[in-house]
C-alpha cells in the first residue's frame, strides 16, 4: 500500500512539472503599437504560431515585416511595421470666405466661414476620411442680395455704382434725393446690409421760405408777397454807387430759411484839402478829383516824404463801407506851399 501511494504522488509531480514548463513557453496576445491591429480574439499562442498584423482603417503601412512569430521562450518576434495616417488633398480656396485647418491627415477637420455679406451653400466643415478624401466638397459663398432700394414718395435714389438687373449686392450704397419743393427728412444715405435689407429710408417733406426781406441801400428782384418753395431763388442789387458784397443770388434752403443775404457797402471820399493822390494808376490833384468818390474795396494812395533821403513815396489806403483812413505819415501842406511851392511836395519830388 505504501508503494502504490508513493508511485501515484510521483506521477502527479511529473505531470505538474511538464504542464508548468509548457505554459511558460506560451505567448500571450501581443501588445501592439498605435494604429496596428490583428484579427481574432485568441489570447494564448503556442511556440511557432504566426500572427499577421495590419494597419487600422485610415492608416497606411510604411515598412514591414507584417508577420510576427511566437518564439520557443514565449516571446514574439520583433516587427518594424509602422502605420501612418492617410493624407487628404489640400482643400481648394474658398472665394469670398476663409478656411481653417491644422493638417490634412486622417480625421483632420476643416472649418469654413464666409465673409460678411455672403451666405454659405454647402457644409460648413469637412473631415479627412479613411479613404483619403474629404467628407464634403468646398462650399460656396454667395453675396447677399437686397433687391432694389425702396423709394419714398416724391423721391429718388442715386446709387454709388451702376446697378444691373433687379437685385443689388451687399455693400451697395446710395443717396436719396427729393423733388423740389420736397426735402429729405432723415439720413439721406442708405446701404444694402448683410441681413439682406436696406437701412432706414427717409421721407420727403415740403419746405417753403417766407417772402425775402429787402436790404439797406439795395433792392430785391421779386416783391411778391408769397411763400417760396425749396430751391427757389431771388436776386439782390444796390442803389447808386453802393457795392454789393456777398452772393447776388439767395436760395430757399431745406431748413426753411434763405441763404445768407448780401449787403450794400457805401463809397468813400478822400478827406484831404490839399495834395495829390494816386487813383487807378493816375496822379490826380485833389481839387481835380471830381467827384471825390472811391468805391467800396477800392484803393487810393496819398504821398508821404522820407525826410532823411528827401524822397517821396505812395502809401495806399482802402475804402471799407464809407470809411477810409488817411495814413499818419501824410502831412497836408500849407496853402502857400501847395500854391507856390507845389514842386517840393512828396508827390512831385524824386520817388524813393
Automatic annotation (TrEMBL):
SMART domains linked: CCP
Keywords tagged on the record: Disulfide bond, Glycoprotein, Heparin-binding, Repeat, Secreted, Signal, Sushi
One GO CC annotation: extracellular region
Compartment annotation: Secreted
Alphabetized SUPFAM superfamilies for the sequence: Complement control module/SCR domain
Disulfide linkage: 27-70, 114-141, 209-252
Main localisation: secreted
Superkingdom assignment: Eukaryota
Domain annotation Sushi: ranges: 25-85, 86-143, 144-206, 207-266
Signal peptide segment: 1-22
Pfam families from the UniProt entry: Sushi, Sushi_2
GO molecular function, one term: heparin binding
Role this protein plays: Binds to various kinds of negatively charged substances such as heparin, phospholipids, and dextran sulfate. May prevent activation of the intrinsic blood coagulation cascade by binding to phospholipids on the surface of damaged cells.
Record-given protein name: Beta-2-glycoprotein 1
Organism: Betta splendens
Amino acid at each position: 500500500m505504501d508503494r502504490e501511494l508513493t508511485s501515484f504522488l510521483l506521477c502527479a509531480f511529473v505531470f505538474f512539472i511538464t504542464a508548468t514548463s509548457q505554459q511558460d513557453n506560451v505567448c500571450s496576445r501581443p501588445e501592439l503599437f498605435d494604429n496596428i491591429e490583428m484579427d481574432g480574439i485568441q489570447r494564448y499562442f503556442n511556440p511557432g504560431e504566426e500572427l499577421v498584423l495590419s494597419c487600422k482603417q485610415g492608416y497606411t503601412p510604411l515598412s514591414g515585416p507584417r508577420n510576427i512569430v511566437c518564439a520557443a521562450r514565449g516571446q514574439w518576434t520583433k516587427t518594424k511595421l509602422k502605420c501612418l495616417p492617410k493624407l487628404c488633398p489640400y482643400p481648394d480656396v474658398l472665394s469670398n470666405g476663409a478656411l481653417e485647418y491644422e493638417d490634412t491627415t486622417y480625421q483632420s477637420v476643416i472649418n469654413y466661414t464666409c465673409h460678411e455679406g455672403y451666405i454659405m451653400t454647402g457644409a460648413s466643415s469637412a473631415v479627412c476620411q479613411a479613404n483619403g478624401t474629404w467628407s464634403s466638397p468646398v462650399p460656396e459663398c454667395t453675396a447677399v442680395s437686397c433687391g432694389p432700394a425702396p423709394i419714398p414718395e416724391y423721391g429718388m435714389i442715386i446709387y454709388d455704382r451702376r446697378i444691373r438687373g433687379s437685385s443689388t449686392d451687399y455693400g451697395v450704397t446710395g443717396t436719396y434725393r427729393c423733388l423740389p419743393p420736397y426735402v429729405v427728412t432723415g439720413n439721406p444715405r442708405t446701404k444694402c446690409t448683410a441681413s439682406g435689407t436696406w437701412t432706414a429710408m427717409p421721407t420727403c417733406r415740403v419746405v417753403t421760405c417766407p417772402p425775402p426781406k429787402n436790404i439797406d441801400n439795395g433792392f430785391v428782384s421779386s416783391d411778391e408777397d408769397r411763400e417760396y418753395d425749396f430751391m427757389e431763388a431771388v436776386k439782390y442789387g444796390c442803389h447808386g454807387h453802393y457795392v454789393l458784397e456777398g452772393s447776388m443770388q439767395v436760395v430757399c434752403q431745406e431748413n426753411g430759411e434763405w441763404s445768407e443775404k448780401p449787403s450794400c457797402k457805401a463809397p468813400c471820399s478822400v478827406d484831404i484839402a490839399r495834395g495829390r493822390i494816386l487813383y487807378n494808376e493816375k496822379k490826380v490833384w485833389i481839387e481835380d478829383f471830381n467827384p471825390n468818390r472811391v468805391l467800396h474795396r477800392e484803393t487810393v494812395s496819398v504821398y508821404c516824404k522820407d525826410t532823411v533821403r528827401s524822397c517821396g513815396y505812395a502809401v495806399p489806403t482802402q475804402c471799407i463801407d464809407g470809411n477810409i483812413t488817411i495814413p499818419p505819415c501824410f502831412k497836408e501842406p500849407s496853402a502857400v506851399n501847395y500854391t507856390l511851392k507845389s514842386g517840393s511836395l512828396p508827390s512831385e519830388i524824386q520817388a524813393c
